[in-house]
Glutamine--fructose-6-phosphate aminotransferase [isomerizing] (Candidatus Falkowbacteria bacterium RIFOXYD2_FULL_34_120), 360 residues
Amino acid sequence: MKKEKEHLMLQEILEQERVIRDIVKKYVDFNSGITYFEEFKHKLRELRKVDRVTFLGCGTSYHAAIYGNYIFEEFVDLPCEVEFADEFLRRKTVIETETMFIFFSQSGETTDIISAAKKAKESKCLIVGITNNINSTLAHLADVAINTLAGKEDALAATKTFSSQLIILALLAVYIGGLNRKPPTISKRAIEEIKVLPEKIKNIFSLQENIKKIAEKYKYIEQLAVLGEKYHFPIALEGGLKIKETSYTHAEGFSAHEFLHGPKALIEKNFPVIFFAPNDSVYQENKKIIKDLQEKEASLILIATKGNKDFKFKDILYIPESLEIFNPILSVIILQFFAYFLALEKRMDMDKPRNLSKFI
Ligand code: BG6
């Protein structure tokens, strides 16, 4: 791969606008206002019979799986659950035949994912593989394989493959929801918003200098918490993972309200907290937690929606207004940049962190 930037991770973060455009081009027909997944062409009968969905992944792909759970419940109206592939594999499971399994793996070769897919297949359920390698073992095992179209990812930390998993999930939820369940009005708004999403991603790129300055300020921290609720819960987990992987800083992602049940004991003056609080259905509740953290003099980095006037402190990064379901695609890029710049400040090799491989 031709290296245009100093680091692969930065290069791959910046590819996300193009990746999202490619995905949207393949799956959305703006004239008719529908999403269409040809991959299901021969499995439509099975798809229509599905009455629950299980999402599985490892690492970053597991975080995409959580997002999948949430968006499918909202758009497809089916009971959903999400699992770590290794836990699904190693415990006794009760599987109902009309379950659709959706496996995520950027490489399509992660051992636990492959073994879990084989286990699910024994129950004759519909198996979907979402992968960045359409020639992978997962793609061959799955009844329906969907290519995330991110292009080869060479940096260890997944960036463009994560956002591609999210957008594919959003489009897939609109598609399956539209097959026989949700009224088209909901998907219509989503499709209108998808049109402008790549431009909004470009807008996030313009925050690089600000994010770099914040990372500079935080380069000596030893630990931090990353908080988010609902659609930003998986993004908080992903933020924590990205920071750990690239800069070896102990960062943990939490669901914002769950953080109050114990981990909050960590908070003292200057304890660093990254908080995702865009305008969405949980903003008012998040606001109360942020105020509480401010009173306890935590050192906050806030990710909010442009135009937010509730908070005035220094380290606020704004994402453009979007639909609640698409906010994570914008805000995760801020965290990817932060993880990258923090690693850069700490002189870490973020493209090849110690002890890790792209998949195991
Ligand atoms: C781990 C990598 O081993 O595999 C993570 O260190 C990655 O970065 C995880 O998210 C899952 O990989 P894949 O290819 O199954 O998505």
Observations:
- The mean pLDDT is 95.
